[in-house]
Amino acid sequence: MSSALPETFLIAASDGKSLINFRGPFIRFLVSRGHTVICSSIEPESEMENEINALGAQYRQVKGSRVGVGIADGLKMIKEYTRLFKEIKPDICFFYMSKPTVFGSAAAYLCRVKHFNILVNGLENAFYRTGFKDYIVRLVMTFGYRIAAKRADNFFFQNKDDYNYFLTHRIRPKNSTAVGGSGVDTEHFSKQPLPNEPVFLMVARLLFSKGIREYLEAASALKKEYPDVKIMLVGGLDSNDESLSEDELNRYIGNSVIEYCGYTEDVRPFLAACSVFVLPSYHEGMPRSVLEAMATGRAVITTDVPGCRETVTDGVNGFVVPKGESGALAQKMALLAGNPEMRKNMAEQSYKICLERFEVGKVNTLMYDKMINSFKN
What we know:
Layout: E1 8-12, H1 16-21, H2 24-32, E2 36-41, H3 45-54, E3 58-61, H4 71-88, E4 92-96, H5 98-110, E5 116-120, H6 132-151, E6 154-157, H7 160-168, E7 176-178, E8 199-203, H8 212-225, E9 230-234, H9 246-254, E10 259-260, H10 268-273, E11 276-279, H11 288-296, E12 299-303, E13 318-321, H12 326-337, H13 340-357, H14 360-376
Parallel strand pairs: 1-2, 1-4, 2-3, 4-5, 5-6, 6-7, 8-9, 8-11, 9-10, 11-12, 12-13
Helix pairs in contact: 2-14, 4-5, 5-6, 8-12, 11-13
């Protein structure tokens, strides 16, 4: 057993912005404890190093594709991670997102990196779709997860559904822990006064898998019963093939169904302006947008799917509705629109649940302690 603490942590992702937006507090947490922290993703240093340096960490590029899963692409990323490990000699690696998990873990094994940890921050869309390409992606990812599970010190899961999926597909990590998503900074997303009037808000990329069509259809139905209710939408259009089209969005804007607010880097003013947060997503790891709404003190309506269902106790801090059913969503929105006392009570419960289960300091401490204990042992 070693009593020394690790010097160098590597945090590896395949989307550089997520290092800032989702792992930023954890990076600062590690730096504050005296560790050297190196972050990696596929973006070049010129795009990332200023923001990463501002967190007190360093950045290294690992070249590769964010979406490709071919053999050549996988071998290239393994080679890139191998090069990185030889350069920085990390004491502990922390992989999240599927490609760093699969290919980074393989390289860590080849380079004899003794300690690496994995965060499953939601399964790929391919795990929920049926096409042949998705089937191949599932095979590759499942095989990679199975190998990683045998070697990793810890597997952290953001929801119980993903953990159960692993078990039913013979992926059995030796140490598994459920954590409260990425956690939410309750000082940055602080509790705000609740508006007296019903104001609904959805914040998400405008993708079908986020439930954007159901939200728009439910908004149309709600407007017939409550024509003066305010229904806001924050999020950018996407080039993804499952994105809402600009023409379709404009129809709802033109008919005064929603108030479209576009994309923003700071959602806090919109959370402060709403009284009910809505996310009718098809699947999530742990929806950060919902946690931010809970920290602000807002009732939540979401779907009965992985990740989302763990944020809401139905009838306590909001409602859980079936995936893909805009009628059920409209009914719950109407119920809250007509009941200010219910909105208030559910908002209070959301805030309490957030403090108890999802506060970022608790999440970071839990993961850190697990990793350090594994390192010492």
